[in-house]
Structures are given as structure tokens and as C-alpha cells.
Amino acid sequence: MNQELRELYQEVIIDHGRRPRNFKVLEGHTHSQTGYNPLCGDRLQLFLQIRPGPRPVIEEASFQGEGCAISMASASLLTECLKGKTPAEAKALFQQFHQLLTGDDASTREGLGKLQVLAGVRAFPTRIKCATLAWHALLGALDQGETKPDDPVSTE
């Protein structure tokens, strides 16, 4: 990756880390899940509002919590790209994002849009858990069905 692109990616991460988008409790949420990384103390709660029906759609997504710039930026970017997706599409996006951070195949970047800025985390294996915390919370929230008690998911 060239230096100019790397600097742009760092700027996006810093911006989302300092001023996360959708950082709020989502009133009327239908799904939620707490995520906790005991290794560094990052903790967040992800909220989803999913329109039911024959083709359920994520209408809104938000989060609250505290953590490092990587976990906050990743959660912020995640909530931005979930809107309008079906739960199945969101799960597929999780797989693609996880492959971006842990796999060797550069083709996984296609279709990830802004999420590609987190690809640099691959160079720091201990930070992958930070970048995927909100994503694991997403899977937990989607697997719960309608709002149920929040058993924290962990990235251990």
C-alpha cells in the first residue's frame, strides 16, 4: 500500500475514533448485544432496529461504549454500513471483513468500501480483537432474535 493511501486510511480511523458516528442508545431497538474484550478493556453495546417481515432489513444501527481508537472506529464504520442490509447480508459482510483482517487473500477487499481502512490492522495481530469487537457483537445480536438479555460476547 502506498504511503499516501496509508495516511488517508489513518485519518479515517482517527476521525471515526474521535468522533464516532451513530454513538447513542438506539431508542426502539429490536436487537442488542454487549461486546467486551478482557485483554484491553474495550466494551461496547451494539443496537439494531430490524424491520420484520418476509425480507427483514436493518433500518438503524448504533453503539455506545468505550475503547481504543481502533474499536471505536470499527464500530462506527460498522453502524454506517449496516443500514439497509438484511441480517443475512450483514453476516456475509462479517465473514468478508473477518477474512480481510485474518486472511491472505487481497480480493476480500472488493465490496467492503470504507471498511478497507481497517486492513492495516492485519499488521498488528493483537489489535484484530479490537477491530472485530463490534462485529462479534453484531453476530450475537443477530443470533438472538428479538431483544433478549444481553450476555456479553467476548473476543477471547
Task: Walk me through this protein's architecture.
The protein has 156 residues and is α+β, with helices and mostly antiparallel strands. The chain is built from four helices and four strands. It has helices at residues 3-18, 69-82, 87-102, 128-144; strands at residues 31-37, 42-51, 57-66, 153-154. The chain has a four-stranded mixed β-sheet with strand order 3-2-1-4, covered by helices on one side. Helix 1 (3-18) packs across helix 2 (69-82). The chain starts with a helix and ends with a strand.
Q: Could you give the order of strands across the largest sheet?
A: 3-2-1-4
How many helical elements? 4
* Uncertain runs: none
Helix content: 40-55%
Q: What characterizes the major β-sheet?
A: 4 strands, mixed
Question: Summed up, what is this model?
Answer:
It contains four helices and four strands; from the N terminus they run H-E-E-E-H-H-H-E. By secondary structure, the protein is of the alpha+beta class.
Keywords:
single chain, 156 residues, alpha+beta, four-stranded mixed sheet, 4 helices, 4 strands, 40% helix, 19% strand
Give me the secondary-structure topology.
Elements: H1 3-18, E1 31-37, E2 42-51, E3 57-66, H2 69-82, H3 87-102, H4 128-144, E4 153-154
Parallel strand pairs: 1-4
Antiparallel strand pairs: 1-2, 2-3
Helix pairs in contact: 1-2, 2-4, 3-4
